Amino acid sequence: MQREDSPDGRFEEMVALWTADSADELQRALLLRLPVLGDSHDAFEPLMLLRSAHRDRPDGAAQTAFLLLTDPRWRRATSRLVRAIDESGLVPEEHLDLLARAVLAANHNTLYWKGTR
User: Fold this and answer.
1) Among positive and negative, which fits the CA dihedral 68, 64, 9, 32?
2) Angle CA(48)–CA(54)–CA(56) in degrees, nearest 5?
């Protein structure tokens, strides 16, 4: 895990998130890089990351959405991000309820993440 609270560390974090070529790569960047940018009220960036990873590849969208919703980078934007994810249509409707339950559980418990591989 890398965390460097400097302009270079912030740039590296942004590059790792925005240059992910696949959902797996984005999920890896979210899990392996401790947040430097931290605690934003903005739901636009995580929604655009979700859209970039799953616009043409819907598989795993609920998993990526879960990681974005529980990531400390955007914890102040969670309610707006939930609404935006719901309205985006990127996460299949049958997965939205499961996603909501997982996010609620994440507020009170430790959740263990098992990736798709």
Assistant:
1) positive
2) 120
0.85 exceeded by the pTM? no
Which of 79, 98, 39 has its CA nearest to residue 87? 79
Position 42, amino acid: D
Structure tokens at 45: 């960036």
Q: Which helix (H) or strand (E) holds 25?
A: helix 23-32
Please give the mean pLDDT across all residues of the chain.
Answer: 82
Burial of 10 (0-12, 13-18, 19+ CB in 10 A): middle
Predicted pLDDT of residue 106: 72
Instruction: Give the tokens for residue 11.
Output: 């740039």
Beta carbons of 78 and 69 less than 8 angstroms apart: yes
Sequential DSSP letters for 63-84: HHHHHHHH-GGGGGGHHHHHHH
Highest-confidence segment of 4-8, 24-28, 31-35: 24-28
Q: Tokens at residue 98, please?
A: 């499961």
Helix (H) or strand (E) segment spanning residue 86: helix 78-88
